[in-house]
């Protein structure tokens, strides 16, 4: 077997490359639930600017995950290196290094359970997965949940193996649950199975489960107490909102079968046939991994709001079966591996470098307003579906900025419409009403190309000119256009 150190170096180099080859945005949460919060935590004691989304006002998210990035920011600040490019890339590089460690852990786990040959195949499948490439270096709670799931799996006492540490794997699950409460879902069958095969059940509960639970909940409570300024039980609020009130549907709902017909097939991609083959081949003792996958997908199917990233944590389990299949293809192994690599290369590079890159690229145009004397007069208004772009974490100066907001209705009114929807129902009327006086006008407007025609009279009348066009995507949908336009108000510049 290759020495773990060499393997680790290779893995880190590969994931670092991965990190730099992902320059697109996936979902708003990768900034708004991590970097933006961390940036605000850093800035609060210097100059008060930043923005927290409604989840933070309602105590639905905990500060434990953003604290990781706030610590990175603080370290950079103390070193005098809080340059905006470093603030953007260092958190992602940290995530990439963790992803590399997780890849190696997965390899070691399979080598222990099976043999080096199967481990190589699983590792290869993991590195080939386009969705892992696309997601594993992002600052998403789903990414962290997936990495912690791999770490926990490597300590899990699977039936018939002499390895595993109850305390370690339970602590890792607990940490994952603090970061994202839904992390408990894939582990329910695994923990239950462990409990059934455990001889000393009382010891497991009294010496492992309860102490680990208390320490983690206690720590997370204290962290949240410090930053919220009051006692908040985030996990309870999260559960109330997403499950009991089912307000997640505010962000779109899908049919019950979506994960089976679209979600899982898409994130597995060309690994799908190998996954199915592997499930048929694998020995009985690995059935618990398959159970975890099916159970997780079933549970998520009952929630109406569905996203690809929600089932990302089952991908490592799937990779185990894909690798098992690859290993047993004997004569066809080489061609199957080539097929996997080539078929994943295109989607990985396309989604990482091209699709939806505009909302990150446009931030560099906003950053330019920071370094000149014009900063105090500048006012940037982002007229896009809300949270399309990151915010101060990608600007790092107290520029006046505004975007269209869209908190869900927490009061229970039937007729509730958020600001973004009001705007899109009549953009021209909204702009004229909002900026009734010329002194209120933003110096810069940023919006998707699809909106231009509708508000052209406002732009012409108020003296705006287009200063930049930024490519965003080849598949514009609804309010999201193929390009992003930056418009600047003429008059102020001529004085």
Main features:
mainly alpha, 22 helices
Strand arrangement, major sheet: 2-1-3-5-4
Ends distance: 70 Å
Q: Detail the poorly predicted runs.
A: none
Largest β sheet strand count, sense and barrel closure? 5 strands, mixed
Based on Cα principal axes, name the global outline.
Answer: globular
Describe the model.
The chain has 495 residues and is mostly helical. Helices cover 58% and strands 6% of the residues. The protein has helices at 4-20, 29-43, 54-57, 64-78, 84-113, 116-128, 130-135, 141-153, 166-179, 184-197, 201-228, 234-244, 258-268, 272-281, 287-301, 315-327, 333-353, 358-367, 419-425, 427-434, 452-461, 491-494, and strands at 379-383, 400-403, 444-448, 464-471, 483-489.
Outline:
The chain is mainly alpha-helical and 495 residues long. The chain is built from 22 helices and five strands.
Explain the layout of strands and helices.
Elements (H helix, E strand, L loop, with lengths): L3 H17 L8 H15 L10 H4 L6 H15 L5 H30 L2 H13 L1 H6 L5 H13 L12 H14 L4 H14 L3 H28 L5 H11 L13 H11 L3 H10 L5 H15 L13 H13 L5 H21 L4 H10 L11 E5 L16 E4 L15 H7 L1 H8 L9 E5 L3 H10 L2 E8 L11 E7 L1 H4 L1
Parallel strand pairs: 1-2, 1-3
Antiparallel strand pairs: 3-5, 4-5
Helix pairs in contact: 1-5, 2-4, 4-5, 5-6, 5-8, 6-16, 8-9, 9-11, 10-15, 13-15, 14-16, 19-20, 20-21
């Amino acid at each position: 077997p290759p020495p773990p150190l060499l393997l680790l170096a290779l893995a880190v180099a590969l994931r670092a490359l991965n990190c730099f080859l992902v320059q697109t945005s996936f979902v708003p949460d990768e900034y708004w639930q991590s970097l933006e919060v961390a940036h605000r935590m850093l800035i609060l004691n210097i100059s008060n600017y930043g923005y927290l989304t409604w989840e933070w006002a309602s105590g639905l998210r905990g500060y434990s995950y953003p604290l990781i990035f706030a610590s990175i920011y603080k370290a950079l600040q103390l070193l005098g290196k809080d340059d905006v490019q470093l603030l953007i890339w260092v958190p992602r590089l940290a995530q990439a290094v963790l992803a590399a460690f997780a890849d190696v852990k997965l390899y070691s786990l399979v080598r222990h359970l099976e043999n080096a040959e199967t481990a190589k195949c699983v590792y290869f499948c993991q590195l080939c997965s386009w969705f892992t490439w696309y997601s594993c270096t992002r600052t998403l709670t789903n990414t962290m949940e997936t990495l912690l799931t791999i770490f926990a799996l490597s300590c899990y006492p699977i039936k018939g193996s002499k390895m595993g540490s109850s305390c370690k794997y339970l602590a890792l699950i607990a940490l994952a649950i603090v970061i994202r409460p839904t992390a408990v879902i894939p582990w329910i069958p695994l923990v239950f199975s462990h409990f059934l095969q455990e001889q000393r059940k009382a010891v497991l509960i009294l010496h492992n489960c309860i102490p680990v639970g208390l320490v983690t909940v206690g720590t997370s409570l204290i962290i949240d107490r410090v930053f919220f300024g009051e006692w908040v039980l985030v996990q309870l609020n999260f559960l109330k909102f997403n499950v009991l009130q089912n307000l997640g549907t505010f962000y779109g709902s899908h049919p019950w079968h979506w994960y089976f017909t679209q979600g899982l097939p898409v994130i597995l991609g060309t690994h799908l046939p190998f996954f199915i083959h592997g499930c048929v081949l694998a020995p009985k003792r690995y059935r618990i991994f398959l159970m975890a996958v099916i159970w997780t997908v079933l549970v998520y199917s009952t929630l109406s709001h569905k996203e690809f990233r929600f089932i990302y944590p089952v991908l490592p389990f799937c990779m185990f079966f894909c690798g098992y299949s690859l290993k047993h293809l004997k004569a066809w192994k080489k061609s199957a591996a080539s097929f996997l690599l080539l078929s994943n290369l295109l989607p990985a590079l396309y989604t990482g470098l091209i699709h939806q890159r505009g909302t990150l690229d446009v931030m560099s145009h906003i950053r330019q307003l920071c370094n000149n004397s014009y900063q105090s007069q500048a006012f940037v208004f982002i007229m896009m579906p809300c949270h399309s772009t990151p915010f101060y974490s990608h600007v790092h100066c107290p520029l006046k900025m505004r975007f269209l907001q869209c908190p869900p209705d927490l009061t229970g009114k039937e007729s509730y419409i958020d600001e973004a929807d009001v705007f899109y129902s009549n953009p021209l009327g909204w702009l004229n009403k909002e900026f009734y006086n010329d002194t209120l006008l933003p110096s810069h407007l940023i919006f998707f190309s699809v909106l231009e025609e509708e508000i052209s009279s406002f732009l012409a009348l108020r003296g705006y000119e287009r200063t930049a066009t930024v490519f965003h995507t080849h598949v514009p949908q609804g309010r999201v256009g193929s390009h992003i336009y930056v418009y600047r108000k003429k008059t102020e510049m001529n004085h």
